[in-house]
Amino acid sequence: MDAIFLQFLNGLDKGGAYALIALGLTLVFGTLGVVNFAHGALFMLGAFCAVTVRRFLTMESVTLSATEKTPWGTALEVRVPYINTWFGDFGNVLVDYSVPISILVAIPVMLIVGVVMERGLIKHFYKRTHAEQILVTFGLAIVLQEIVKAIFGANPLPQPMPSSMNGAADIGLWLGMDPNILTYPWWRLVYFLFSVVVIGAVFAFLQFTTFGMVVRAGMADRETVGLLGINIDKRFTIMFGIAAVVAGMAGAMYTPLLPPNFHIGMDFLVLSFVVVVVGGMGSLPGAVLAGFLLGILQSFASMNEIKAIIPGIDQVIIYLVAVVVLLAMPRGLLGRRGVMEN
Amino acid sequence: MSERDNGFSRRKVLKGTAAGLIGTGLAPTVFVRGAWAQEFCNNPTGDTVTFGFNVPQTGAYAAEGADELKAYQLAVKHLNGEGDGGMISTFVGGQLKGNGVLGKKVAYVSGDTQTKSDAARDSAKRMVERDGAIMITGGSSSGVAVAVQGLCQEMGIMFMAGLTHSNDTTGKDKKRYGFRHFFNAYMSGAALAPVLSQEYGNDRVAYHLTADYTWGWTQEESIKNATEALGWKTQAAVRTPVGAGDFSQYLTPVLNSGADVLILNHYGADMVNSLTQAVQFGLLDKQVNGKQFQIVVPLFSRLMAQGAGDAIKGILGTTNWHWSLQDEGSQAFVKSFGAEYGQPPSQAAHTCYVQALLYANACEMAGTFYPPEIIKQLEGFKFDGLGNGPTEYRAEDHQCFKDVFVVRGKQAPSSQFDLLEVVQQVPRSQVEYDAAIFGGELGPYEPASVC
User: What is the ipTM for the molecules in this complex?
Assistant: First the structure.
């Protein structure tokens, strides 16, 4: 029972990442009708916001020691972080919390990246076929990857979580069990809560603000909203920026769980497209539902008891479920009639 | 008519005999050598000889690959007489003079294996066919090593393996044209087991997470055999895909499995991720079966330790070599590498540097680049001064035999490089085995085809 509960938790934190990326993909598709294969690259750029912030916070002044030598005979480099020079011990706290701090940087950066991407490139492909949109956004993703690779190298760059989040939370103790019966890493719980908050905020924004109402109206009938004198294109551009922010924040917060490299976005992109298709193209609740559902299924499929019956099932479960869902429900779990059916 | 007039004199007969003997005696080294030039792949005819460095520049083992390439570039410098000469001056049993190889300046080309067998084969093939590489060396994956070694055997090109730890590389998949300086999984198990027994006792329950390819399988088998011989039980051995990134779904079942030791048969970025995530799951804080939970990483490297940060503290494993060794050869290499790149070399860098030197030396000893002659020089070759004490390239399987090191993640590192401490230098005799136990056939000396 404990094992099942732990796999369920694991599915939730995996599903949180899938849902966040799929949500952004669906926002872009639902508003602009663009199948954005560069969305994974936005997740990757967000992750590298965290890397950049940490690099900035850990910049050091380097002086050569007059007395000490390295094992290879050169003068030892004495490194002093600037942050400690400027802020003393508080500098260590800033470095320790570099990942949460990077969210504050990722939000404006990703908003600008999203708006520039939409205005600079993607708007020119609105009237083209989906195949052309996929090609151009996939090309853009490769360009962004290569730029990041050229700047940061090909190796994964570990980003430590805040030291207070190290180790595991004793969930069993909260539920009245003996200590250390049911434990789960703190940061994974944080990530799950973070994904729930972000998803909730996006839905609330769309549901309870005038801006969101107009966007939803535009998603349902773009032409009519335009005829009412509303500049829907401008709002959709902002939605593209918001989708980029969601992906970027998801990427930045994921860095302590998986050291980012230039390819991290592509690794998530394929899964996220499956999530979007299973949830139903253009359906925001569908994307979230399918994200968590597939994360949980993938986690359960990794249990030894399941793999003993069907070896290798953990590697294919998501695609298998996608096939079954699409055979039974061709529009996905919560898909709408008429989307991508022309 | 005198004998002189007849043209028959003792002197003429002696001269003629001598000329005949010299003619027939020298023929193999003059004309046959010329004949080899026609027969073997990429026989260098100009004033340079080209080595092919096939290393992972992307993928899960890219960090090792970057260090390997640095080591090879340093080896080329030293072979060409540039820099301080590094290990050439400490190489006991070698004939290298720092004037290139057989009078030719060493040049190189490099390729990216991408840590994928097919990409590695393509890259090696390209370096042989397009760039004229006389030999291929490098790599940081046993899957890659086995694949490239097979290709090199087909093409009649020497393969000096880089970092490959699977028993198969010099076991069931061994090849006449392939040589491995690095140690293997069997040796890790043989070296590590006594230390595990001493540190954690003989009543333990182990859970293996294993990279799902040749290296992972053989390491899992070797460590299982070694620990079960101690009396340990194996709770489960779970295969994980290479480059999985997030191992949480495989770590979650460990928590309540009843195991009190997690053995991570992972390497490179996979090991960095799985170890870091295992520590995040609080495994090291757990008490199971009345014992403190432990994690073991049978194949350790300093580069991985750097990536894993604090997670490696106290973790036991084995390594082929470590930069803190105090022997003359290791010190010379660390000095050269450190002066060149501002950091100490990894074990991957060490094994690749040594392989480049060993190949060049074998050419010098053979007096030719003809691969079968080089192979004969390397088979059974005994040497010292290259960092692991007295070493032998066993003729039966082309596996190097030397001391192995059991290491532990340092609790209080003094620098970003000082992360591992050597717990024990395990003598060669303790890790030796009969070549027959892993089977395989080396294959013929003569190249099967000409490229």
Answer: 0.82
